[in-house]
């Protein structure tokens, strides 16, 4: 009789679905690192955001807990340093076809992690808005479309190292 049902807005539902899909993507990215020479490093790099996004997809207000914020902030800080180093290497070697070089793919993956975790920051503080959800939807679609595109067009992967060709 005295129960109050809290109805979720459609923006909140889309936000949670985007986080579920990004958790899935980061989990897949973690899995494909298994053949990489430095697999442990990259599996942690993708695994942490996968778990953070999974928590966020289940309970959106988790971003306001101290543990979630500290883990996300630490991951953003370390990823930012690695992105700066990889970005410098990509610039120094004048790499233009970014997805054809391992440093470029690593740089892009970490940039995706950084942008996503920064987008998630404090999202549980108040209802998510249209700008955040629209940005999230666009970002969520990109890695799946890119992965599918490279999976379908095998000639784009000809120059990749063998450990990048065999995971999926």
Summarize the structure in words:
The chain is mostly helical and 168 residues long. The model has no long low-confidence stretch (mean pLDDT 87). It has helices at 10-32, 39-58, 66-92, 102-120, 130-152, 162-165. The termini are far apart. It is globular, with a radius of gyration of 17 Å. It contains six helices and no strands. Helices cover 69% and strands 0% of the residues. The longest helix has 27 residues, at 66-92.
Give the tags.
6 helices; mainly alpha; 168 residues; single chain
Overall spatial form? globular
Largest sheet geometry = none
Number of helices, counting only DSSP H or I runs of 4 residues or more: 6
Indicate the structural class. mainly alpha
N→C terminal distance? 53 Å
Radius of gyration: 17 Å
Mean pLDDT across residues: 87
Strand content: under 5%
Work out the helicity level. 55-70%
Number of strands: 0
Secondary-structure element pattern, one letter each: HHHHHH
Low-confidence parts lasting 5 or more residues at pLDDT below 50? none
Entry summary:
The chain is mainly alpha-helical. It has helices spanning 10-32, 39-58, 66-92, 102-120, 130-152, 162-165.
Topology:
Elements (H helix, E strand, L loop, with lengths): L9 H23 L6 H20 L7 H27 L9 H19 L9 H23 L9 H4 L3
